[in-house]
Amino acid sequence: xxxxxxxxxxxxxxxxxxxxxxxxxxxxxxxxxxxxxxxxxxxxxxxxxxxxxxxxxxxxxxxxxxxxxxxxxxxxxxxxxxxxxxxxxxxxxxxxxxxxxx
Length: 102
Hints:
single chain; 5-stranded antiparallel β-sheet; mainly beta; 0% helix; 7 strands; 62% strand
């Protein structure tokens, strides 16, 4: 397995932080799948203890991988550790929320 990751975070203002990232994963052998993923996100501080955040990701899968019984199947996109397989070769994910530190 080969992996390549690149991330950039930037403090836009004292309250606003933004970031972008790219991940590439390549499998070899019978499971010759390739995965490209792009992520963007940001945090906005409302106060010292409360932040708003937003994250988005997109993944494209290609090639083949092995299923549970070892048969070659088309690779399917699955972003992160959410355990939700897209059932297709692409997947998009968006998350927004409020973080409060006690």
